[in-house]
Amino acid sequence: MSNTFFAPRLNRRNFLKASAALGGSLVVNLGVAANSLLAAQEFAPNAFIRIDRRGLVTFVMPQVEMGQGIYTAQAMLIAEELDVSLDDLRIEAAPVNEALYGHPMLRRQTTGGSTSIRAFWTPLRVAGATARRLLMQAAATEWNVDVASCRTQDGFVLHPDGRTRRAYSELVDRAASLPQPPAEAITLKQPSDFKLLGTARKRLDTRGKTNGTLKYGIDALPAGTRIAAIAISPVLGGKPISVNQTAALAIKGVRQVVITDDSVAVVADHTGAAKKGLEAAAITWDDGPNRAVSQVDILRLLDEKSQQAGAVARSEGDVAAALSAAAVRIDAVYQLPFLAHTAMEPMNCTVHVRNDACELWVGTQNMSSAKQATAALTGLPPEKVIIHNHIVGGGFGRRLEVDGIVHAVKIGKQVKGPVKVIWSREEDIQHGYYRPYYYDRLSGGIDGAGNPVAWSHRISGSSIFARIAPAAMRNGVDPDGVEGASHLPYKLPAIHVEFKQVEPQGVLTSWWRGVGPSHNIFVVESFIDELAAAAKMDPVEYRKRLLSENPRALKVLQLVAEKAGWGNVLPERQGRGVAVQFAFGTYLAMVADVSVAKDGTVRVTRIVTAVDCGLTVNPDTIAAQMEGGALYGLTAALYGAITFSEGRVEQGNFDTYPPLRIDEAPHVETHIVPSAEAPGGIGEAATSAVFPAVTNAIFAATAKRIRTLPINPEDLKA
Amino acid sequence: MAFSITINGQTHTADVDGDTPLLWVIRDVIGMTGTKFGCGQALCGACTIHIDGVPTRSCVTPIDSIAESRITTIEALETLPHGKALQDAWIELEVPQCGYCQSGQLMSAAALLAETPQPTDADIDSAMSGNVCRCGTYQRIRAAIKLASA
Q1: Interval A368-396 mean pLDDT
Q2: Domain at B76-147: CATH code
Q3: What positions belong to coiled-coil segments (chain A) (predicted)?
Q4: Which residues pair with A349 in a beta bridge?
Q5: What is the rounded CA–CA span in Å between residue B106 and residue B93?
Q6: Which residue would you say has higher pLDDT here, A343 or A61?
Q7: Which residues of A touch B137 (CB under 8 A)?
Q8: Higher-confidence residue: A28 or A644?
């Protein structure tokens, strides 16, 4: 195991700078008895850990909790190596400080891409092990024994005599005075010695979610806060023309009307008055250059551009020759819609712009961009932007974008005192950064024995990397745009994959749970199923043949087939579908059972997953992410579609952009393959797998191939 | 005008228009933030409270309709007959993910158990299908309601 550590943070001077900023940070009290005062003397070996003289262990969390269980999982990494009870950790959200809390993979202070465990698996364990080593050294010095002869247990250093021990709290002063140990002195535990990692632990943030005490960003209420309801131009790029300020101000409780370049906000004593004032304001808009944007035009553009060559992401073998020699050739167009995120916590941000600083109370996945955007808008130096990051009421990628913060700061600049800007659900759905619409062209061929001989896939759609990180583009290929498509788990003799960037006018696009794979796995796993059907072979058997050189993928497939009862005969109009993927560093196989009514209504009755995500942290959280990830994708597969007309999004609330409800929810069963491999990501894996598992099951039930999402019951009538 | 309302046994006054949804009185005027805003149209159930024991979407309930009715919010869930059992079951089975919808889920579940102490799956579907969870915790919600009712 490498001991490489994210270098700058093991530095006490840096830590002290960070702790000054901590003064204003959100403290997430997770049920540990509150202590009245911070001790004067603390042992703070790195930016993640502080131990005070009373033994209070504080863990400063670099990542944001948005339901994925990371507060608990990362706390487990620290507690394991520090050798303290999980219940004894007090957790704080990190302040914005990339040098100390930057993401080792993403190089910013960001939470996304199912990377939190992958990125911090080693750094946090090293942080815990380093602190433990210093505490042992402190005790060994006091006892005048060799540090190597000491052990630790649940917050104590044990003397080699087997009787004497010192609590960590007693060693704080001495440990704080010791120099950092050299990297080679830090030994991480072997997995066989883990006490916490790999065991199901209760999440640390649950109680506050059952009694109303946990505070999300939308719950922040600094003294004197007023509430603003916001209307953003219904067409991207439009601006307000007229606002009836008099009518708005006549509403009881309304204090101020704020007009920005593309929005109008009504500031009031409470949201009810603000919303009423916004309605009274009777805003008229100049729709601007995107006034004519329509779904029909977007699809025409994608259809046209997708017929042109794209940038080559991968090309091996002679696909053209193999296709023309194939016994059977299949050509297909797959289409995936724009999708909104609809986190349960609507977009919001509380902001207090002052001359000398700007404070934000928000739940964000992207501390770095929040800080940069706020500094740019206010003209303040970045270090004068103070962000109180909160537990997030659903991220799904939406809170990687900071447009909600940008709108709030623009409004806040015109308001004296703190103002909380709340988006209505309609604003939230109609002003998204949508998952791109993808238009994919595929051609595949099989030989006389049914074996695939050629695979060609051209992906056309918006590039997120081209907008936010153009340096990540590779000769015109968006690495996210082809993730899950360019490298398949299957052995194929000839493969050619292209990416064609197409940017529809008047639409913002960004990450959506499952990112690139949430699009590509649907296409790839559907098309493999098409080849299996053309070869007249069982979909599981077909995949097994192609996975003979991929033991981890083969194993999850075999396990899921066994657990799902693959091969059992099902009644008419019921079907079972399978999907296999390697994405986010995790192998996953999923089987969905569906039943299709005569009117075409699809009911998913059961989902079984088998997952190999390497070494595990909290198996129950893995199961929870399988359940949640699958249902998030299933909602989109059944219902998700954002469409445009006259520049406007046609959907508005949960009636027109429907979520899956409890009476439609299948039972999700999770089987974890024990593994000693490096940890993989888990938050998004099931989201990408569920689309093809379900549509392949629909094919099994009805012989109808779904190539366009969302699933349309009209196409499935008996 | 100023309204006087009773929430969790305590009297509060709010000087707001009569058509102000109760949700905003509870959250913004009184400052009790356990009750959540999700959709504003009674489509998601995040704002569910009890009015005289009846589960009600506070986002569409105007304050002038309350009069002397007793309002109970998530902060007083424990005082309801099955409240503590539900909270314990939620923790035991690790129901919440992001947790934002869970105040509403728990208030709907408490109303269900008050009416139907041993609910069937169909009872649960019927009582809980107005509460949306985007994290997909439904199967654990179902199991936790059954655990709390056992």
Answers
A1: 96
A2: 1.10.150.120
A3: none
A4: A421
A5: 14
A6: A343
A7: 624, 627-628
A8: A644
The confidence band for A4, taking pLDDT boundaries of 50, 70 and 90, is: very low
Per-residue pLDDT tens digits for A62-73: 899 999 999 999
Q: Verify whether the Cβ–Cβ distance B44 to A667 is below 8 Å.
A: no
For chain A, say whether B125 makes contact (Cβ under 8 Å). Answer: yes
Task: Tell me if chain A has a CB within 8 Å of the CB of B41.
Answer: yes
Pull the structure tokens for residue B61: 């309930």
Share of chain A above pLDDT 90, in %: 90
Let me know: does A489 contact A581? Beta carbons within 8 Å: yes
Q: Do B43 and A653 touch (CB under 8 A)?
A: yes
Do the interacting molecules here have an ipTM over 0.90?
Answer: yes
Mutation target vs B (from A270, A365, A635; most B CBs, 10 A cutoff):
A270
Q: CB burial class (10 A; 0-12, 13-18, 19+) of residue B108?
A: buried
Cβ of B98 and A269 within 8 Å?
A: no
Domains of chain A in start order, with CATH, are: 43-210 (3.30.365.10), 217-288+347-422 (3.30.365.10), 295-339+434-715 (3.30.365.10)
pLDDT of A475-515, one tens digit each?
Answer: 999 999 999 999 999 999 999 999 999 999 999 999 999 99
What does the CA dihedral A339, A692, A548, A672 come to, rounded to 10 degrees?
A: 80
Number of helices and strands in chain B (H, E): 5, 5
Contact between A273 and B96 using a beta-carbon 8 Å cutoff? no
Residues A343 and A628 sit within 8 Å (Cβ to Cβ): no
DSSP state of A434: B
Most B-contacting residue of A70, A87, A209 (CB-CB within 10 A), to test interface: A209
Summarize the confidence of residues A578-598 as an average pLDDT: 98
Domain boundary assignment for chain B: 1-75, 76-147
Q: Where are the alpha helices (DSSP H) in A535-578?
A: 539-546, 551-564
> Sorting pLDDT into bands at 50, 70 and 90, what band is A2?
very low
Strand partners, B4: B13
Q: Does A178 contact chain B (CB < 8 Å)?
A: no
Q: Is A572 exposed, middle or buried (0-12, 13-18, 19+ CB in 10 A)?
A: exposed
Q: CATH top-level class for B1-75? A: alpha beta
- Tell whether B11 lies on the interface with A, counting CB pairs under 8 A: no
Q: Cβ–Cβ of A627/B75 closer than 8 Å?
A: no
Distance from CA of A271 to the nearest CA of B (A): 6
Report whether pLDDT(A92) > 60.
Answer: yes
Candidate from A211, A212, A630 with C-beta closest to B136: A630
φ/ψ bin of B45: left (φ > 0), alpha (ψ from -120 to 50), beta (otherwise): left
* Closest CA–CA distance from residue A69 to any residue of chain B (Å): 7
| Residue showing tokens 């501390």 | A367
Chain B residues whose beta carbon lies within 8 Å of the beta carbon of residue A339: none
Band of the pLDDT at A7, cuts 50, 70, 90? very low
d(CA B13, CA B90): 33
pLDDT in tens, A253-288: 999 999 999 999 999 999 999 999 999 999 999 999
Q: Name the residue of chain A whose CA is nearest to B17's CA.
A: A252
**pLDDT confidence band for A427 (50 / 70 / 90):** very high
Question: Using CB atoms, which residue from B17, B86, B98 is nearest to A394?
Answer: B98
Specify the amino acid at residue B63: I
Reported as a pLDDT band with limits 50, 70 and 90, residue A16 is: very low
- Residues of A with CB below 8 A from B49's CB? none
Q: Which residues pair with A596 in a beta bridge?
A: A602
Give the rounded distance of the alpha carbon of A299 from its chain centre.
28
Nearest by CB to A659, from B36, B134, B140: name it: B134
pLDDT value for A11: 31
Residues of chain B found within 8 Å of residue A631, distances taken between Cβ atoms: 135-136, 138
